[in-house]
Amino acid sequence: MNGLRFILLSLILFGFVFWISPFNVIPELLRYHYSKNYIYKNVESHGSFKTYLIDNNREKIKFTPYAFQDYPRALSTFDSLKNHFSSVQVREDDKWEFKKKSFDIDRHIKNSLCSWNNSPYDKKISFKNFLEFVLPYRAGDEALVEYRDSLNILFARFKYKVQDDSENLDNLVDSINSQLATLVDYDIRSLATMNVPDPLETLEIGKGSCKSLTQLATLSLRTLGIATTIDECPFWAHRASGHQWNVYLSNDQQWIPFNGSERNPDCFDPFNDSIKAPKIFRHTYSFQDNFSPTNTNKENIPPYFRMKNRIDVTSSYVSTSNISLYIKDKPDDTEHVYLSVFNNQDWKIISWSKLDGNQAHFDNMGNNNIIYLPVFYINGRKKPAGKPFLVDGDKITTFELKENKFIDTDISTVNYYYDHQWNTSCAVSGATYRLNYWDDEWLVSQEINADINGHLKFKNVPEDGLYFISSGELNNRQQRLFSLKDGAQSWY
Question: Where does the record place the Transglutaminase-like domain (predicted)?
Fold first, then answer.
């Protein structure tokens, strides 16, 4: 019995040392074995989707956003096509692609091991970081193609520099990313599309979204043996959409952020008081069991949290708070509650908590003047679980309408929003505007025309509410929330 205990303890100790050890101390045969096992053990959730619009003759509709002069025109046409035609979505699972040999995963593993083995990295960074941030053959949900040979040719002049101990890794990343920036540009029109291009397609087009550009940068650096991944804020709390950027692991074990294929680390946009990030997640290849709710039907899990390869790094970027809530009325058919932020005219779910009786706890939430709404998510639909509240540092303020209390307003600014810079929209004389207020759903208080001076004088508005203004004159996707105090607007 004692002999068996000794063997088990020895195996556990060996596994622990193996996991944290620098790459160069692990025998070559074991490197390949563990790398292949790691890929297949975590492959189940990985793949890509291809979505096609189909016309009445069952033919695919060709659409490119770059044929349009600007993003609004591209998006308007794209939305119109989606509304008039049906779509077909095809899932391409990576495990099946491996079996078909359409992607040679064995060759990829051997090439990754070779790149890493020839890098000074292998003496400094653990095998675990190699498996998680160098070995993976994909960066996100892009189409799966054989890209290594093309990227090796593209960055041939850097290949031997990476292998040189005397070269500064930070300078190398700057140089590689600078070359990428000469080959591709960020183009907002790329958001008006259904599919994420593969890295070679992004290079061929020469433009893309932050998502496709960061995926290209990730695979380029990994091809050269540099540990790289993607950090993202899925939904901002101060504007529509979200954002992705890259991070690489420096020789002193620090994650360094940069805008892949755009700007280098020294030009990375800081998270200042104007930028509101409720959550920031880092992409991993392996499953993270605590990222998604468990013991619940898939229909009761928001789409973003059906992925299992994310870790929370919010506190690495912004000030955070732990939030505890009392949930008064809990439906019988749910064990979870979520926090959401207002983004693109909707409440977007950004975090979750398993209910402990009527208590919910949310850790590491961005607290930079951010409004959250607690919601349930049942059978694909959101239902308010409480009142919206503002988190400003350690202070929490709840928005709750005063019963039978009303105010009159005199508003001239109809939006204060961020679109690469802060912008102000003012009412247009004679144009029609609606004042919406939140009362477990968005309700219209009043619809009026702006007066000759561009002012909006809404009457009998429910007091102490949370509001936003909509109009055919505005880009309503960008509309932001505000409160009213003594006639003054506070924007969120």
Answer: 171-259
Domain boundaries, the chain: 2-46+106-269, 316-398, 406-491
CB 191 within 8 A of CB 239: no
CATH number corresponding to 2-46+106-269: 3.10.620
Our CA angle for 352, 356, 357, nearest 5°, is 125
Identify the band that residue 11 occupies on the pLDDT scale cut at 50, 70 and 90: very low
Average of per-residue pLDDT across 1-22: 49
Alpha-carbon distance 185 to 271, whole Å?
23
Task: Give Cα separations from 45 to 276, 284, 379 (angstroms).
Answer: 30, 12, 21
316-398 maps to which CATH number?
A: 2.60.40
The CATH number fitting domain 406-491, selected from 3.80.10, 3.30.300, 1.10.1040, 2.60.40: 2.60.40
Mean pLDDT of the chain: 89
Query: What confidence score (pLDDT) does residue 104 get?
Result: 95
For β-strands 207-208 and 185-186, DSSP reports them as parallel
Secondary structure letter of residue 276 according to DSSP: -
Dig out the tokens for 313 from the structure: 């790094």
Q: Name residues whose C-beta falls within 8 Å of residue 283's C-beta, 6 or more positions apart in sequence.
A: 139, 140, 229, 230, 231, 232, 309, 310
3-state secondary structure of 77: helix
